[in-house]
Design a protein that fits this description.
The structure holds two protein chains of two kinds.
Chain A: E1 2-8, E2 12-18, E3 25-32, H1 37-49, E4 58-63, E5 75-76, H2 79-91, E6 96-100, E7 105-111, E8 114-120, H3 129-138, H4 143-152, H5 163-175, H6 180-199, E9 208-211, H7 218-228, E10 232-233, H8 241-248
Parallel strand pairs in A: 1-4, 4-5, 6-9, 9-10
Antiparallel strand pairs in A: 1-2, 2-3, 6-7, 7-8
Helix pairs in contact in A: 2-8, 3-5, 3-6, 4-6, 6-7
Chain B: H1 5-10, H2 15-34, H3 44-51, H4 56-66, E1 71-74, H5 82-86, E2 90-93, H6 102-106, H7 115-125, H8 131-134, E3 137-141, H9 145-154, E4 160-163, H10 171-192, H11 198-220, H12 231-241, H13 246-265, E5 276-282, H14 291-298, E6 301-307, H15 312-315, H16 326-339, H17 350-362, E7 367-373, H18 377-392, E8 397-402, H19 409-424
Helix pairs in contact in B: 7-9, 10-16, 11-13, 14-19
The chains are: A alpha/beta, B alpha/beta.
Bound molecules: iron/sulfur cluster (2 copies).
One iron/sulfur cluster (SF4) binds at residues 76-78, 143-144, 283-284, 309, 341, 343, 345 of chain B.
Chain lengths: 250, 425
């Protein structure tokens, strides 16, 4: 028996396959969620079945916001539980997990590998991946370019709490001739301050692990560490944390 | 449902719009309630009451009014129903728990107002609730800022009577509320033309205590390991208790409880073994707001207690029946209606936190969900203490904010699902 985790987020869909002992990642798959979760789930299914294991030999757990669209899953679990489990696998069992997702951001407190508390951002997209995506788009940049620019900029304050208002704030900053670097830096700063406000609603452990799509955005990770006053660790596998956790719980 | 169109018409309702509500309700009720397995038979009465929600009871109120009787509508459980009842009036809750009425309220109120308040105004101004047509007097109170100001707007259309509730619980505040209840009694006497005698007031106290005792008996089944009735069903009964005939609902609840006694003896549960037990605390869940219970129980949890106005706060404590004179009885009512209800409109409100902890223990709750109606500032702020104190007591707690729409259903399912998973690991 091998264990698969399928994590269908709002922006990206992830699949991983773990070995029988659940100690090693045998395969990973990352793809955009697209507009049809069911179709995305189907593609991941095909991928899974192409890895050389029969269906009877696979146990599949689905998570993420599109988990209901995975009809072939043996079980579904929420992304909170899975991200917690996955982060414990990647970073150890006593830490605070920060997941900046496409449409929501979560903070998960792990104690001895178990989720003991969590909080998600409220119904607004400030402080989520969506915010940065919208801002990068508005400046005509891809996310990688956006972070590269942000790194060389001097932070301008973006005060709007709401993504839509922040977007128009950025438009007027651009109109004033503010360098894009500074605006990008400000946008990252805005997300970081919202995320840290969320973290501070819980009793954090002082050790942080970042999961989700920004795990390779070094500038954001560093900034987050500065604001939280503690090291934020992560790894390229951080974006697979939900899928890894799902597979572990299979 | 029987055809009540004529009655609705004569009450000056917007029958066409109201029909939309009548069409939507059976489906919603069926999905949430009738889909449950192994429901007690005693729920039949309550199913029937909901099915006829805008017909049966309103028709009784119409009859009462035809004979010259009066109807008094209230919005808050700090206002003692014993008073209008002792004056020969019928007391009814005016609780608005549906999104259906919210847009109507938003015509007059800022969008950033709690949905309960918006729905209350909407129900009146849109003329889509018979209870909001039938009440001869609407009793508002100065609890939260939203209500206080909304009453001024409601007063432009409805006969309002406002009671000034204190914000603290010092001796002088009790005295003030006692005076307010005296004033309410006078007002009800004026409205009905009946003089309240000690015998009348006494029997009203006993009548409502009996209703409370029935609800207490019902709640006691939720303390069992094998819970013979769902949280949803108990919520429904509690909601109905706000407007049904008190004596009738009392006997119906006891009838149901007799059935539950048998179930308890046979260890019948409507939940599988090991179901996680949830205590809800926070803002009221007015009929037909079943959203949270439905999500929790569909995800495999059981709601075992509501530390809410539509829950324990409504029935847990009885009024002292020993008073002989009207003055003594009003003192006892004050004691009960101010001293035993711990709403966030008071400062400080330490007793509520103590209650949550006590109830979590009594009902063997595995976790607490603190619910906040969107834009209710007082409960939102008080959530700080709820979370901190429960954490300190080692009781898992999840804070959520929601309104009457279904827009956040998926997000709630994730949060609540994760909470249940957390309790299970
Ligand atoms: S929450 Fe407070 S103000 Fe609202 S009904 Fe209950 S006691 Fe009254
Ligand atoms: S829920 Fe809060 S804001 Fe709404 S009426 Fe009750 S106390 Fe007021």
């Amino acid at each position: 028996m091998v264990y698969a985790g399928i994590d269908i987020g709002s922006t990206a869909a992830k699949g991983v396959l773990l070995n029988e002992a659940k100690t090693e990642i045998l395969a990973r798959k990352l793809m955009p969620s697209g507009w049809n979760s069911r179709q995305t789930a189907e593609e991941l299914h095909t991928w899974l079945l192409s890895l050389g294991h029969s269906r009877e030999d696979l146990r599949i757990i689905a998570t993420g916001y599109g988990r209901v669209s995975v009809p072939y899953a043996d079980k579904t679990l929420t992304e909170i539980t899975c991200h917690g489990k996955g982060a414990a696998f990647l970073g150890g069992g006593d830490l605070t997990v920060i997941d900046i997702g496409g449409q929501d951001t979560k903070v998960i407190v792990l104690t001895g590998g178990r989720v003991t508390d969590f909080v998600m951002n409220d119904k607004c997209s400030a402080g989520t991946g969506k915010f940065l995506e919208v801002m990068a788009n508005r400046m005509g940049l891809g996310l990688d370019e956006f972070f590269a620019m942000a790194e060389t900029g001097r932070e301008v304050k973006i005060s709007s709490m709401c993504t839509v208002f922040a977007e128009s704030e950025i438009v007027s900053l651009m109109g004033l001739g503010t360098p894009r670097e500074d605006i990008a830096c400000g946008a990252v700063g805005s997300v970081v301050s919202k995320v840290s406000a969320l973290v501070n609603r819980k009793s954090p452990s002082g050790k942080y692990y970042l999961t989700g799509g920004f795990c390779e955005a070094g500038f954001l990770v560093r900034k987050l560490g500065e604001v939280l006053g503690a090291e934020v660790i992560t790894s390229p596998d951080g974006r697979f944390a939900g899928a890894i956790g799902a597979a572990l719980l299979g | 449902m029987a055809d009540y169109h004529e009655m609705w018409q004569s009450l000056g309702m917007d029958v066409k719009t109201h029909d939309l509500l009548c069409e939507a309700l059976p489906g919603a009720f069926g999905d949430v309630y009738l889909s449950q397995d192994n429901r007690p038979e005693g729920m039949d009465y309550f199913n029937m009451v909901v099915a006829e929600i805008h017909g049966l009871r309103p028709a009784e109120l119409v009859e009462h009014k035809k004979k010259g009787g009066k109807v008094v509508g209230t919005f808050c459980i700090h206002v003692p129903d014993e008073i209008p009842i002792s004056a020969g009036a019928i007391a009814t809750g005016l609780c608005s728990g549906s999104q259906f009425w919210v847009p109507g309220g938003e015509k007059k109120l800022p969008a950033a107002t709690c949905p309960l308040i918006k729905a209350s105004l909407g129900a009146r101004f849109d003329r889509t609730c018979p209870f909001f047509r039938l009440a001869d007097m609407f009793v508002g109170e100065t609890t939260c800022d939203g209500k206080k100001k909304a009453w001024e707007i409601l007063a432009e259309d409805a006969p309002m009577y406002i009671m000034d509730i204190p914000q603290m619980k010092r001796p002088k505040d009790y005295k003030h509320w006692e005076e307010e209840i005296h004033g309410y009694l006078k007002k009800c006497e004026e409205l009905t033309g009946n003089r309240v005698t000690p015998a009348n007031l006494r029997s009203a106290i006993i009548l409502l205590n009996n209703k409370r005792k029935a609800l207490q008996r019902l709640a006691s089944f939720r303390k069992l390991d094998d819970i013979p009735i769902s949280g949803k069903d108990v919520l429904l009964i509690t909601q109905i208790a706000f407007y049904d005939d008190p004596a009738r609902i009392t006997s119906q609840i006891h009838k149901l409880c007799d059935e539950l006694d048998t179930r308890a003896k046979n260890h019948v549960s409507v939940f599988p073994k090991g179901t996680k037990r949830i205590l809800l605390t926070g803002t009221p869940l007015s009929i037909p707001n079943w959203k949270l219970h439905h999500i929790i129980e569909t995800l495999g949890g059981a709601v075992v207690c509501e530390e809410m106005c539509t829950g324990i706060r409504y029935y847990e404590k009885c009024v002292d029946e020993s008073g002989g004179t009207i003055d003594e009885m009003i003192t006892n009512l004050t004691e009960r209606y101010m001293g035993a209800i711990h709403c966030a409109c008071f400062t400080p409100n330490r007793e509520r936190i103590d209650d949550i902890k006590r109830l979590a223990e009594e009902y063997h709750a595995d976790g607490v969900i603190d619910v906040n109606l969107k834009f209710c500032g007082i409960y939102d702020i008080e959530g700080h203490f709820v979370e901190r104190e429960l954490n300190a007591a080692g009781i898992p707690v999840l804070g959520i904010e929601t309104d009457y729409t279904d827009q956040d259903a998926e997000q709630l399912k994730t949060r609540i699902g994760a909470f249940l998973e957390m309790l299970g690991n």
